[in-house]
């Protein structure tokens, strides 16, 4: 039996719920019976610094780090961070990105401007590209902070993990008071 490993990269900035999303993804993959390895790389991740989480799952996984150029799915929470991480993907990789722009300090201080046309740049490189208005959808679900779960729902449709395991992982990892909104947000993402 071949050891097909699925490589997922989650990228964005601190405070976006990336680590919770990677925990839910890892848990869902484990519940589905896969061997899972996970690694996080934090910049100034409290608020506003780059955060990258690697999740790899398959029959047997040895390293938690996705080798450059071998990512199957890039799951971007912020557009500039998504573009910055494109070299980690396979040429036929999938990109699911939040249509959100968070200006880094250099832009806020007027030293640089936020790059234009990032969605178009991604689309020109990757045919399997979904741009999601995560903030609006999460607000419609009942809480703007559930944008990470909207994105998780969209990504879940592109992975070989049955929906029941995603829902079980959500129930385990999301605080009870936020579970209802997060389940709605997850389903909205799955329907995209």
Q: State the oligomer.
A: single chain
Choose one word for the global shape.
globular
Number of domains: 1
Beta-strand portion reads: 15-25%
CATH structural fold name: Pyruvate-ferredoxin Oxidoreductase, domain 3
CATH architecture label? 3-Layer(aba) Sandwich
Query: Largest beta sheet, briefly?
Result: 6 strands, mixed
Structural class: alpha/beta
Radius of gyration: 16 Å
Helix content class? 25-40%
List keywords for this structure.
192 residues; alpha/beta; Pyruvate-ferredoxin Oxidoreductase, domain 3; 6-stranded mixed sheet; 6 strands; 24% strand; globular
Tell me what you see in this structure.
The protein has helices spanning 18-31, 79-84, 105-108, 118-125, 134-141, 147-156, 163-173, 176-190, and strands spanning 6-13, 35-42, 50-58, 71-76, 89-98, 128-132. By secondary structure, it is of the alpha/beta class. It has a single domain (6-190), classed as 3-Layer(aba) Sandwich (Pyruvate-ferredoxin Oxidoreductase, domain 3), CATH 3.40.920.10. The protein has a 6-stranded mixed beta sheet with strand order 2-3-1-4-5-6, with helices on both faces. α1 (18-31) crosses α7 (163-173) and α6 packs across α8 (176-190). It is globular.
């Amino acid at each position: 039996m071949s050891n097909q490993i699925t490589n997922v990269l989650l990228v964005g900035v601190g405070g976006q719920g990336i680590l919770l999303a990677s925990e839910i993804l890892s848990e869902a993959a484990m519940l589905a019976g896969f061997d899972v390895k996970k690694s996080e790389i934090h910049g100034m991740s409290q608020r506003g610094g780059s955060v990258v989480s690697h999740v790899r799952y398959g029959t047997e996984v040895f390293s938690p780090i996705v080798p450059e150029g071998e990512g199957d799915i890039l799951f971007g929470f912020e557009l500039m961070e998504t573009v910055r991480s494109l070299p980690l993907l396979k040429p036929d990789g999938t990109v699911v990105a939040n249509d959100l722009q968070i200006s880094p300090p250099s832009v806020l201080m007027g030293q640089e401007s936020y790059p234009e046309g990032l969605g178009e740049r991604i689309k020109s490189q990757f045919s399997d590209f979904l741009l999601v208005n995560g903030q609006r959808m999460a607000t419609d679900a009942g809480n703007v902070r559930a944008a990470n779960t909207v994105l998780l729902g969209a990504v879940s449709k592109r992975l070989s993990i049955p929906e029941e395991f995603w829902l079980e992982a959500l129930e385990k990892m999301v605080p009870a008071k936020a579970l209802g909104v997060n389940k709605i947000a997850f389903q909205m993402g799955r329907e995209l």
